Amino acid sequence: MTPPPAEALLFEVPPPPTSIERVLHLADQYTQHNDALDLVLRTTATSGPNTHADSALRTAASTQSAIKAIQGERLYESVELTETVMRLQQLAFLSTASADLRAGTARQLTALAPEAAVSCAVTLATEMRRRRWASAPVADHRLTAVQCDALTQIARGHVVASSSLEREFTRSREPKVLMSTLRALESRGLVERSADSAHPAYVGGTPQDRVRLTETGIASLASVLELPPARPSAAPGTTPRPLPASAQATARSR
């Protein structure tokens, strides 16, 4: 077979994101939306209802697109999958409703959206692996357990970075994401920092850097979400049964 002409390679495009990746993208979008609202709420300038309306409507539209992508998978319906779609529909509704509200109230409506989106991605990954294991994403086995936890925390919008007295440090929820872990993930192109995009740690402080997943990081996290447990080496039914009491007594007397 002759190789394709060089011109054809110029038009190669990466494959579209999977449904799991779309939902993880959605979590990041909600985090950015919330961060922008936090910064507005911490400024002295007054903000009207239109300050964040465009961003809220964009997140709602992205949520609907994610729902369509999941429905396009044509997975066998289950309670878990139905509830996942319903949760995403709720997020879309809340985001749309927040567009008509002032920043303070709007922030409350989408406060839990990033974490809810990641939970939906976890459930979706579980369903896809359980029903179509052959088409599930290939796991990135280079990730350690600590790194997997860190990527999940970052996807949930729980990690920021800042510096003081020429010393860098991170802030996160449990499990803690250490600066050494963050740097290791950055060196592999899995995460990045958005400078001065997250709210300050204290009143009057400077904005912090939001830690976000890159495209590669989203793909890596999607590949390891809810991996099935290791399969037993022995086939079912091969575990030896215990001897009857009489046989055990005979064996001990020998």
Structural class: alpha+beta
Taken in chain order, the helices and strands follow as HHHHHHHEEHEEHH
Number-wise, the strands total 4
Output the number of helix runs.
10
Verbal overview:
- The C terminus is likely disordered.
- The chain starts with 5 loop residues before the first helix and ends with a helix.
- A four-stranded antiparallel β-sheet has the order 2-1-4-3, sandwiched between helices.
- It is of the alpha+beta class and 254 residues long.
What tags apply to this protein structure?
9% strand; 254 residues; alpha+beta
Summarize the helices and strands and which ones pair or pack.
Elements: H1 6-9, H2 19-41, H3 53-72, H4 79-98, H5 103-109, H6 113-131, H7 145-155, E1 160-164, E2 167-171, H8 179-187, E3 191-198, E4 208-213, H9 215-224, H10 245-253
Helix pairs in contact: 2-3, 2-5, 2-6, 3-4, 4-5, 4-6, 7-9
Briefly summarize what is shown.
The chain is of the alpha+beta class and 254 residues long. Helix content is 52%, strand content 9%.
